[in-house]
């Protein structure tokens, strides 16, 4: 069923559980590694034809949705925060944003002006898919983007980010307001270009307490998600390490809530409410486990869904480069082979 992913997002019955994987296009695939010998990650993201090629590469494995090949940090440069991917270090922001003066210089831009290559890639992908597989667009959420900007890259404790949030709440609010408006415009433009679903990635939000999420983050996320929901496309709200934040994530928005492996899917769905679809939630490292172990966990996740319409199978975070392609293919085939149970009351 070419629309089983979208049907599940709408909590409609499907023949089997639909599946796609975060980072399904990328470093675990030999074709991608060959391409990276000739092009940097940013070159691929900025060249629509290459982004098209990489987006399509994993679909031969049987995923029920494609996800645009891009990066959550692409919004930084048009805003005025230049960065690069340093070998072995990940993203490095050249001039971290740590003062009100630096924040005031950041631009709120229109996506067609600042990221036209991403929107062109979406149009190319939709034409190529020709209705066979739905396309997911995405962006990073405000807290995750802000933490990269402030820390200057990845962080283990988000010390500088939290310092700004607690010590300079007004400055923090100005930064988050700018980021959230950029992300809102960017995601709406992706929908207008042809994305059939949207995922907001809040990769590092689990670093916050429920109170800090409520006071310093949720209003900005709500600004984005309520607007994108009004377009009518499914909106997936995903974060990692969010078992203490599920109810607040739900209230901030999203027609589908993505959960990671640190909470049982059945418990998470009950807390979120069955009026939302749910996405998740296998530990990505199980793709490296013995087949019998991986199968047991896959079946457990599907059993946790209880046969209710509205479950999209995914990992609790992205595929890592060390995972063999054949393991990904085998897992997708397994998921599609498991009969759906009759929904529990």
Description:
The protein has 345 residues and is α/β, with parallel strands linked by helices. The chain has a single domain (4-337), classed as TIM Barrel (Alpha-Beta Barrel). Helix content is 47%, strand content 12%. The strands form 2 sheets. A 7-stranded parallel beta sheet has the order 1-4-5-6-7-8-9. A two-stranded antiparallel sheet has the order 2-3. Helix 15 (265-272) links the parallel strand 7 and strand 8. It is globular and about 55 Å long.
Quick rundown:
47% of the residues lie in helices and 12% in strands. It has 345 residues and is α/β, with parallel strands linked by helices.
Break the fold down into its secondary structure elements and pairings.
Layout: H1 4-9, H2 30-36, H3 41-46, H4 48-56, E1 66-67, H5 76-79, E2 83-86, E3 90-93, H6 100-105, H7 111-114, H8 116-129, E4 135-140, H9 142-151, H10 159-167, H11 169-193, E5 197-202, H12 210-216, H13 218-229, E6 235-239, H14 246-252, E7 256-258, H15 265-272, E8 277-282, H16 291-304, E9 311-315, H17 325-337
Parallel strand pairs: 1-4, 4-5, 5-6, 6-7, 7-8, 8-9
Antiparallel strand pairs: 2-3
Helix pairs in contact: 4-8, 9-11, 10-11, 11-13, 13-14, 16-17
Q: What is the name of the CATH class?
A: Alpha Beta
Helix content: 40-55%
CATH topology heading: TIM Barrel
Compute the number of strand runs.
9
CA distance, first residue to last residue: 26 Å
The general outline is globular
Mean pLDDT: 96
Quaternary structure = single chain
Largest beta sheet: strand ordering: 1-4-5-6-7-8-9
- Tell me about the biggest sheet? 7 strands, parallel
How much beta, percentage-wise?
A: 5-15%
Structural class determined from secondary elements: alpha/beta
């Amino acid at each position: 069923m070419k629309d089983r992913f979208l049907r599940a997002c709408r909590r409609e019955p499907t023949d089997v559980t639909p599946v796609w994987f975060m980072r399904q296009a990328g470093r675990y695939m030999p074709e991608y590694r060959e391409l990276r010998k000739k092009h940097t990650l940013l070159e691929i993201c900025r060249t629509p034809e290459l982004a098209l090629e990489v987006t399509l590469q994993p679909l031969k494995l049987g995923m029920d949705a494609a996800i645009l090949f891009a990066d959550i940090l692409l919004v930084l440069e048009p805003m005025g925060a230049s960065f690069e991917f340093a070998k072995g270090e990940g993203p490095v922001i050249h001039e971290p944003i740590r003062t009100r003066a630096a924040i005031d210089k950041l631009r709120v831009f229109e996506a067609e002006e600042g990221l036209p290559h991403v929107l062109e890639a979406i149009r190319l992908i939709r034409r190529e898919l020709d209705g066979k597989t739905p396309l997911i667009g995405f962006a990073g959420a405000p807290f995750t983007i802000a933490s990269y900007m402030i820390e200057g890259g990845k962080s283990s404790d988000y010390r500088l980010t939290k310092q700004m949030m607690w010590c300079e709440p007004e400055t923090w609010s100005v930064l988050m307001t700018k980021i959230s408006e950029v992300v809102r415009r960017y995601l709406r433009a992706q929908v207008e270009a042809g994305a059939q679903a949207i995922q907001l990635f809040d990769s590092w939000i689990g670093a916050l307490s429920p109170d800090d999420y409520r006071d310093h983050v949720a209003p900005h996320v709500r600004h984005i998600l309520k607007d994108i929901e009004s377009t009518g496309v499914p909106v997936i709200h995903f974060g990692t390490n969010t078992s203490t934040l599920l109810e607040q994530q739900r209230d901030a928005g999203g027609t589908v809530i993505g959960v990671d492996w640190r909470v049982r899917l059945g418990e998470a769905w009950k807390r979120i409410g069955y009026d939302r679809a749910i996405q998740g939630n296998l530990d990505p490292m199980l793709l490296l486990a013995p087949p019998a172990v991986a199968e047991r966990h896959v079946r457990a996740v599907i059993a946790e869904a209880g046969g209710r319409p509205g479950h999209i199978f995914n990992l609790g975070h992205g595929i890592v480069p060390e995972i063999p392609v054949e393991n990904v293919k085998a897992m997708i085939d397994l998921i599609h082979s498991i009969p759906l149970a009759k929904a529990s009351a």
